[in-house]
Specification:
Alpha-Beta Plaits; Glycolate oxidase (chains A, B); FAD-linked_Oxase-like_C (chains A, B); oxidoreductase (chains A, B); flavoprotein (chains A, B); homodimer
């Protein structure tokens, strides 16, 4: 069977692109470092088209690589076995906002920023807040994306109520429910969340939304060293001060980022910083900030700055540019290891030593409130093979160490293509076997995003 | 192979009970209405013993019915195919409280009340609060138990970080992780939560805990009718007043319960009531109560009573005795259908009509904040066959209607044995097929809690 027959399924020549006519950007991910090859790129517009494409692919054993906005950082959207790229970005309609039951039903190609804007215009709130606002919600669900607000609000998984998916043989299945509680049979919904397109194509999504918090205030806390800062985190949380976000960053990369965006943090006397946000009613925020102030001042903080709107915007702009200030025009390998919170200082110390040992510049920062650390290895001018060999050794050691700390390879980006090798090394064989057997149920002919994560 | 050989595996005669020596209470569930039969009852004390028993059962194709405290209301703990009752109630040690990372590791037989007491003594809090405090946490996880505080805090699933399980062939698998975030491969953990013992035996549990709220205040709100009360719920939630619990009850059963416990609600001018709790800091509670007062007074509430400690205790005692005041010495069929919140009034109206049509007394009350409705059909003096036939018709209609409302058969009790028929009727064939195929991966020889839920 020929890929050109796809034109009989989707009778719109602008939506079926064959072979060499596929633009390069569809063959890669958000890093644009590695490129795959594919036989066809198909833009679908509804569930029926997805069913027809998947049936055709399944009958003809054609690999299918699903794709949202292509912003992922793990190669999950790179076609490695040729076949069909199934682009869902045109399925981007908001279908229904149910204000009585506080949920919203959308298509998978809706962008995070568009969803956030839409619900906020209705005085509602979609709490998950991954850094990449131009990512699709289908992609966010596929990687169980996290983001800044996870400390208070949880991650994408916690907001997915119901999913319509098309499995590997073209069967439409609805998993989860629109109800708030569910103790009715096996939880198929959470199997799909975080499955990175290996079990089915997400075609419809119902998400939980909550009322929009009245206000939001950030505070910046400098410390002599990161360890003193991290030691405060469980104390802050146990003080019941309910922070929305707790980020950490060290001075060396802060200075770089300050120059890059031409802004300054409102205090510069720390070697390490915690940047927190509190949201809710104004009284509640004040009370929570006071509790936090007391905790950190009694536990080694050098200062405590409640930020005004402009200062908060500057601090978060600096925080947001930490990686790009160093990685701009410079190849990087970004990873997002997650460890128990109290292991953050030991893990970053190990990361530093490891970088030195292998002669690679490493930077790190991240979500201190949930142990999710963003490490980037920076290439600078290293020769290509040397770079590949050294980063391979470095990553092996980092993943091994995080595993010793009861950590995991990915807290929010997913495994995709680039972490598969390391994920399989630190994951027990029996767990991988269960995952592969489950894939075999949803995708018997092994066509969906193969060569990724565990398969 | 003989069941007596179990005595070679567990060399303690008090922990292996054979055939007719098994006490009757181990052959039933919390309702003690239906009884099964079994060949052996084994009390296990550690994971190794579970592995050895499961391997023996698997090799000899002996059915295994796992059991915690036996408090379930769905027959999930009733052995229907003879075989081995695997009692985990003696695996009841608290293993480790990690105060830095706010999690606790326990054995599955720890009782809910013991866990709650233990963490509260450390100024921490385990939010899920199912009504039956003498249930085991292993059981709570197996049914994804809910309870009163789900509106603010979620259900059992939301607090399970990591599980050690023994699957149907005796393999030990650790699923989930001690980290807060996890985007590393398929989510096997949530497949186990709510699986009612059909996929594996839970042998070790790590739960998330949170800081203990400083205070808790309840309010009672009478309405002319239930519909007016339910119409307030989304408005209360959208006012950002963050209630912990929102329960509803109607006057006819309240009066019964008041007589039964010899207490009175502090106001009695309603035909229907909402009973709410708020927790947190005192200022925060006051602010939230004020917001709620404004919402409900503007939307048809007849009164608004902030309860003092004694009044709150009385109101919750009356709420807690709603079912038992009528069901004491009277057979009942309890169900826990869940519907979208705005469908509660229509669903209870239908329940009333249906009860009348079939000549069966029905009572209902429940968790208004999450749409989880407890309905009990009461037998009174009805003849046995008549009762069975009529309740069967009644239940068929209730489950069908809840399905039309996008509801589900169970919000927190699980499906077990008694709801299996109805669950299978309202669940799509493809979903049941996926569940059965997944069971086949975890339990190839089909020995674990067979004849329950979907299998």
């Amino acid at each position: 069977m020929e890929y050109s027959q796809l034109k009989n399924i989707i009778k719109d020549e602008n939506r079926v692109i064959l072979g060499e006519h596929i633009e390069k950007e569809y063959l890669t991910d958000g890093l644009a470092l590695e490129y795959g090859e594919a036989d066809a790129l198909v833009f679908v517009k509804n569930t029926n088209e997805v069913v027809n494409i998947i049936r055709f692919a399944n009958e003809n054993l054609m690999p299918v690589t699903p794709r949202g906005a292509g912003t992922c950082l793990t190669g999950a959207s790179i076609p490695t076995k040729r076949g069909i790229i199934l682009d869902l970005s045109k399925m981007n309609n908001i279908l229904e906002l149910d204000e009585e039951n506080l949920n919203i039903t959308i298509e998978p190609g809706v962008l995070l920023k568009d969803l956030q804007d839409y619900v906020e215009s209705k005085k509602l709130f979609y709490p998950p807040d991954p850094g990449e606002k131009a990512s699709t919600i289908g992609g966010n669900i596929s990687t169980n994306a996290g983001g800044m607000r996870a400390v208070k609000y949880g991650v994408t998984r916690d907001y997915v109520r119901e999913l319509e998916i098309v499995s590997g043989d073209g069967t439409i299945i609805t998993v989860g429910s629109k109800t708030i509680k569910n103790s009715s049979g096996l939880d198929l919904k959470d199997l799909i969340v975080g499955s990175e397109g290996t079990l089915g194509i997400i075609t419809k999504i119902t998400l939980k939304v909550i009322p929009k918090p009245a206000a939001s205030v950030s505070v910046l806390i400098p410390f002599d060293n990161l360890k003193t800062g991290v030691n405060c985190i469980s104390k802050i949380i146990k003080s019941n001060s309910n922070p929305t976000a707790i980020e950490f960053m060290e001075n060396n990369i802060v200075e770089n980022s300050e120059k890059f965006v031409d802004l300054k943090l409102p205090c510069n006397n720390g070697n390490a910083y915690l940047l927190l946000t509190f949201d809710g009613e104004e009284d509640e925020i004040s009370a929570n900030i006071n509790k936090t102030r007391e905790v950190v001042i009694n536990n080694g903080a050098l200062d405590f700055r409640e930020l005004n709107e402009e200062e908060a915007l500057n601090a978060w702009t600096i925080r947001g540019a930490l990686a790009s200030s160093i990685c701009q025009n410079n190849e990087q390998v970004p990873i997002d290891i997650v460890v128990p919170i109290d292991k953050i200082p030991q893990f970053v110390e190990f990361t530093n030593e490891c970088g030195k040992k292998h002669g690679i510049q490493v930077i790190y920062f991240g979500h201190a409130g949930d142990g999710n650390i963003h490490v980037s290895a920076i290439r600078n001018s290293m020769e290509s093979n040397e770079w590949k060999q050294r980063t391979h050794k470095l990553l092996n050691e980092l993943y091994k160490k995080s595993n010793e700390f009861n950590g995991l390879p990915s807290g929010e980006h997913g495994i995709g293509l680039t972490k598969k090798e390391y994920f399989e090394k630190v994951t027990k064989d029996e767990n991988l076997e269960y995952m592969r057997n489950i894939k075999n149920i949803f995708d018997k002919n092994n066509i969906l995003n193969i060569g990724k994560v565990y398969c």
